[in-house]
Amino acid sequence: MKRFFLLLGGILFLSLPANAQFNPNPVLNIENKDKKLLNYGYFLGFNRYGFKFDYKQDSGNQISDVQVTQTTGFNVGLIGELRLNEFLDLRFEPGLYYNARNVGFIGFDDPKKALREVKSTYINFPILLKIGTRRYGNFKPFLVAGPSASLNLGSNEKSLDDNSSGTFRMNKWSYNYELGFGIDFYLEYFKFTPSIRGVFGLTDEIVRDNDPNSQWTGNIESMKTRGLFINFTFE
After folding, report:
1. pTM higher than 0.70 for the full model?
2. Percent of the chain scoring above 90 in pLDDT
3. pLDDT digits over 37-63, tens only?
4. DSSP code per residue over 61-85
5. Sign of CA dihedral 20, 22, 25, 29
6. Structure-derived torsion over alpha carbons of residues 118, 49, 226, 15, reported in degrees to the nearest 10
7. How far is CA 75 from CA 41, 48, 183, 213, in A?
C-alpha cells in the first residue's frame, strides 16, 4: 500500500506541471484563497477498514489465522487549516467514520462461533502536515501525512461478555499514522479537493477474552487497523 501511494503521488507531481503548460496564463479563481492564515471547510467520503493480525505462534497450517472481509463505509467531518508558508499547512480534520468488518476465525464448525460482525463508529482526530507544490493555474497537487487518534464508540471495551458469548471487544482508543495525496481544484467560488489516504494502526486494538487460552484470541499477538480513506473536501 505504501508503494502504491508513493507511485501515484510521484505520477501526479510529475505529470500535472506538464499539463499546466497547455494553458500558461489561465484566469485564476479565488486567487487569494491560500493566503489566509486560517481556512475552514468540511469533507465527505468513503472508507475501507481492515485489520492486520500478528500471532504469537505460527501454526504452519493457518488454523490460527483470522480472515477479515472489508466493506465500504462513509466519512463526514470538518477541517481547520493553519497556513505556515506557501508550501506547508497544518490541518486538523476531526471526523466521523462508520464501517463494518466481518472477522472470521478458522477452526470452528459452527458459523455463529466462527464469524463476528465488527461494527465500528470512529471519531477520528488527525493532525496533518500538508505539503503542496506551487499552484499551477487552478489546481495544486499535495502530499499529506501525520498522526491521528481514534475513539471507537462501538468498542465493547468494558463489556463483561467476550467471544464465548458472541461479543468481540476492542480498545476504545487507538493511535495511527496517515499518509496520502490529493489535488486542490480552485473553482469560481470555493476550493474542491479529492484525496486518498492510507491509515496504519500503531497500537494493539483487541481486548482478549477472559480465558487466556481462548480459541478466538489466545494466539493473537496484536491486531492493528489498516484503512483507506477517499475524501472530497469543500473549502
Report:
1. yes
2. 54
3. 999 999 999 999 999 998 887 755 545
4. SSTT-EEEE--EEEEEEEEEEEE-S
5. negative
6. 180
7. 14, 10, 19, 37
- Cell of residue 168, nine digits: 468481540
Nearest Cα residue to 30 out of 173, 166, 135: 135
User: Cell numbers 503521488 correspond to what residue?
Assistant: 9
| Single-letter amino acid, residue 2 | K
Question: Taking residues 3-7, what's their average pLDDT?
Answer: 50
Cell output for 210: 477472559
* Coil, helix or strand at residue 225: strand
**What pLDDT sits at residue 19?**
45
CA–CA–CA angle 43, 46, 47 (5° rounding): 120
Alpha-carbon distances of 6 from 3, 122, 136, rounded to whole Å:
5, 27, 21
| Residue position matching grid coordinates 495525496 | 181
Give the Cα separation of 49 and 63 in Å (integer): 23
